[in-house]
Structure formats: C-alpha cells, structure tokens
Amino acid sequence: MKGIVFSEFADLVEEKFSPEMYDEIIMESDLPSGGAYTAVGTYEHAEMVQLVSKLSEKTAIPVADLLYTFGEHLAERFASIYPIFFQEAGNVFDFMKSLNDHIHVEVLKLYPDADLPHFSFDDSNPDCLVLEYTSERGMADLANGLMNGAIAFYGENISVKMIPLEGSKHVRFELLRG
Amino acid sequence: MDDFEKKIALQERRLQREKRARKEAEQLLEQRSRELYEANTALKAANTHMEQQVADRTMALRLARDEALSANKAKSEFLSSMSHELRTPLNAIIGFSQLLAMDCDDDAEAENIAEIEKAGHHLLNLINEVLDLSKIESGKVSINLEEIALADVLADCRSLSESLAKRFNIKLIIDSSTDLTVFADSTRLKQVLSNLISNAIKYNRANGKVTVTVSKKDFSERVRIEVEDTGPGIADDKHEQLFEAFNRIGAENSGIEGTGIGLMITRQLVEMMGGEIGLTSEVGVGSCFWVDIPAHAMLDDNLDEQQEQQEQSETALASCAESIEQEQSMLHTVLYVEDNPANLRLVERIFLRMENIRLQATMDASTGLEMIAEQKPDLLLLDINLPGMSGIEMLQELKKHSQTADIPSIAISADAMQANIDEALAAGFDHYLTKPLNVKELQTLVYSYLD
C-alpha cells in the first residue's frame, strides 16, 4: 500500500484525536516499519489493517466508520495534491468513470509497484452510475468515503448506496443523481 | 513531572519515527534519481543512434537517387546508340530485299521477300520511335518554331496517310481548305498529326471513317485540330494511361502493329511546341483526339510588320471595336534583352502561355535601350552578362531619364553568387532571378508587376 495513505492516516489521527492516540496505536501494534511512514514509500497492507483495528478498539468507533471518514479526508487531500485529475473530469460521474482507464493508468506510471483496486461501471442510466469495486484488500468503506469526498468536492447532489456482493471485497455502489 | 516525562518520551518517539521516515524517503529519492539518470542516458544514446540512422538512410537514398539518375541517363544513351547501330544493318536488309524482289520471277518467292521487307519496315518503325523517345528524354530534340500555314501541313498529312487508309478500308476526310496559321515546328506538327491519324485508322471499325477538322475560337490564342474516329472508344479511366510508354490499351492482342510509345512521343512533341493534347471518347461510338497549338508567336522583332498586322486585324474586326479596345488596354508589354538564343527561346515559350502579355525581345543592349525609349514597356527582363554593355549598365542608363527610370526591372542571370545579386539589386533592379529559370516563379513574378 502506498505510503501516502499511511502518512495521511497518521496526520488525521493526530488531528482528530491526539498525537498520544497515534503514538499508542503504533506502540501497541506489531509493525515491520516501526510506524515510520513516508509518503513516497510502500508498506504492507496488513499494517493499515492493524492500525485501523487498534484505533477502533481504543475509540470504540466501528472500523467501517473510521475507514469512511478516512476516505473522505483522503479525497480532500488528493484534490489538493493532484488537482489535475479532478479538473479534467469536471463532474462526479466522469471522474468515477475515468478512474480505471485514466487516473489509475497515470498512477501506475508514477508508481509501477502500486496495487490498485478495480472499478467497473455501468452508465446506461444517465442519472444513476453503477460502480463495482473489486479488491483483495476489502477496503470498500474507504472507497465509499472517497466517493463521498469527491461528491463534496464537486458540490453535486448525489447519494451513494453501497450494496455488498461479497463481503467488503466485492461491492456495488449506486450513485444516484438528484 | 511524570506527565512531563511522558510527553518528552512521546516526542522522542515521534522524532525517531520522523527520522526513520526521512532516511527512507531520502533513500527512495536517491534511487529514483539514479533510475532517472540512467533512463536519460539511455534516451540520449537512443537519440544519437536514431540521428545516425537518419543520416545513414539519407545518404543511402541520395546514393540510390544518383544511381537511378545516372542509370536512366545511361539507358537513354544506350537506346540512342543502339538504335543507330541497328538501323545500319536494317537498311541493308530492306534495301537488298527490294533489289531481290525486282529480280524475282517466282510468285511464291516474291511473296516471301515481301514479308521480309514488311517485317524490316516494321522493325525500322519501332527503332525510330525508340530513338525519338530517347532523344526527347535526353533533351536532344530541337524544335524550330515558325509561323506555318495549316493547309500545307494537312495536305502533307493526307498524302502520308492515304495509302494506310486505303489498306484498312477507312474513309479519310481531311479538310485542308483553311487559311489559319500556327506557330509550330512544321516537321514535328506533321509527325504529331500523322501519328494521330494513323492511330485513328488502325484502331477503327471495319469500313469506318476518320475526320480531321481545324477550328479557332474568336480571340483565342490557339488553334484546335481534331482527329475523330469511329473506333471502339476508350473508357474515361484509361485516358491518362494512353499517354504512358508501352501502354497499348486493348491493342495488346489485337494483331495491330505498334510500339506503344507513339502517343507518349506525340504528347511530348506537342508540349515542346507550347501546345496541349487530349481526347474525348465514347465507348462504342469513337474517340476524338484534339491538339491545341499556339496560333502565333507573341514575340515579333519586326515592328512594322506587327503594326501592319494590328491594323489589318482592326479593320477586319471593326464591328467588335469595343471589345478589341478592352482587350488591348489589358495587353501588357514586357521587354527581354538576352544574347543567348536558347534562353531567349525558352522565355518566349513561357510567355506564349501567359495571357494579355506581349513579349518583345532583342539580343543586343543598345537596341534594347532604343526599344525601351520608344515603347515604354511595362516591365523589363535584363540579362546581366550582355556583350558590350552589361544589364547593370543598361539599367543605370535608363535611370538617368525620367521617362524610363520607373519601369520595373528583373535581372536574369546564371550568376547565383550573393555578391553579384547584391550588386544588381543595389544598382536598382527590383528582382533577381537565377538561371536555370523556374517557369512558375517567373510567371508569378511577372504577373505581380503587371497587375
């Protein structure tokens, strides 16, 4: 998993909770990296799972909610670090549709070792975009947060319905306009 | 105090983590930089390699082109000399078979000898045409343009083609009762027309006919000669191929003798005389080949004769006086001073194709000055290296007189050295053209000064 996800997670925990909270979950987890993350590095996905689980345990907030909030935060950060992708698409539906064929292609050019989730879509209904998320990592809640973050960025009136097809590894999202 | 120590310890751990992260980032950065540097080096090498390849290919192409050019030249020369070599023994074959035929009493033998002679003539025809083509291709054909009466040319064509028409049982109708004249090479024009007539006879239907007509539209600078047949006709998409070498459309297996280069030679000859050739055809009805030849030369050294002609035409066309006036007000005069006859002819030919321009020419600078003072041409074309007085000196002389000082002038010289070009422009020439002349460039330039 790309380092930027970890460094953003660290910033978010320190900001929303406290530096002590972040320090605690680091200390209580068994991390090969020792919890020292740089945005340009790459780390085990298992470390993120441990960190989120530990945070949930400490704060009594469900993992799904934590991931969703983190997703919203990441969307906001991506929009400020990589504004070009958001400007190119111009609206939520086009942005989501450009994920696989454009954005992820460009991400792979920069980070050839990145392991990215797959999104297939069905846009036969102009007012309802259907996306299917597939990833071994089962981070559908994070994806949900990211989508809502993108909707907030564009300021559009779109609701997201999340339908699990196979746990959190294969999930259908229905984005409904209006 | 306990709390404070905890905070210190926390900060200590954060600092350690930050340090570790920084070191890792630096390492990654270092690695990326190295990768970039290597990629850049590889790109540079690929680029150099590509440039080298382009240079190599360019060189190879240049060599191939030079080889093709010299091979083509060698081909023309070979064809030319071979044709000459072949003609000598062939003349003997034909000559001696004629002698044999005279002394022969046996009918069967006489027929055999006639076959030999006929085959010999056919071979001679082929060789002559190949020789013609190679001469044209190597630029060795000279064209002698003069004003000739079409009636004479057509009468000659009739007597040349009559026996062929009789042999093929084709009715040949040539109306030679015309008083039109053309500006052409008499021998070459006859060759062109005879070839078209002979084609029209050979590729006709049984008991067909060939009609040759002449026409000239009012005010047109060209005379049109049409050769019409009643043959099978030629589909539109085949028209252009007709004028290519060794292309005998539909005649390959017809049993009709031919080289397949006749029309190519014909077209080249027509174009050398400043004319144009083409055809209209309807499949199943017949074809009509037309040739447009300039009616007269734009150049006329003899002023009196020219004025006389002008007067004559004015009387003849009195009823259209108004349109003539319009026509003449549009007529521009360009004066060309050039001592090299070949260049003079070339420029004359170029001007034949330009409308509403009369080209006056002289080979001598002092005559040129007189003509300019007298006629006030609209534009001057001056050769620089003239005998006696150079083009630059001529221009300096003209600049001294208010009446001639403002006539635009173009220098034409084989001298392409920048210093000499600068010298001519400094002396007051408006433009400098180098030989060999680019026809289009000259035409565009002349029009730009006259409009």
Describe the fold and architecture.
The complex is a heterodimer of chains A (178) and B (451). With 178 residues, chain A is α+β, with helices and mostly antiparallel strands. Chain A is built from seven helices and four strands. Chain A has a four-stranded antiparallel beta sheet, with helices on one face. Chain A is globular, with a radius of gyration of 16 Å. The N and C termini of chain A lie far apart (35 Å). Chain B is of the alpha/beta class. Chain B has 14 helices and twelve strands.
Secondary-structure element string of chain A: HHHHHHEEHEE
Q: Any idea what the shape of chain B is?
A: extended
Low-pLDDT runs of 5+ residues of chain A are none
Strand order within the widest sheet of chain A?
1-2-4-3
Quantity of strands of chain A, as a count: 4
Structural class of chain A: alpha+beta
Query: Overall pLDDT of chain A, averaged?
Result: 91
Assign the CATH architecture of the largest domain in chain B.
2-Layer Sandwich
User: In whole angstroms, how far apart are the ends of chain A?
Assistant: 35 Å
- Strand numbers in spatial order across the main sheet of chain B: 2-4-5-7-6
CATH architecture of the largest domain in chain A: Alpha-Beta Complex
CATH superfamily of the largest domain in chain A: H-NOX domain
Brief rundown of the structure:
Chain A has 178 residues and is an alpha+beta fold. Chain A is built from 7 helices and 4 strands; from the N terminus they run H-H-H-H-H-H-E-E-H-E-E. In chain A, helix 4 crosses helix 5 (83-89) and helix 5 packs antiparallel against helix 6 (92-110).
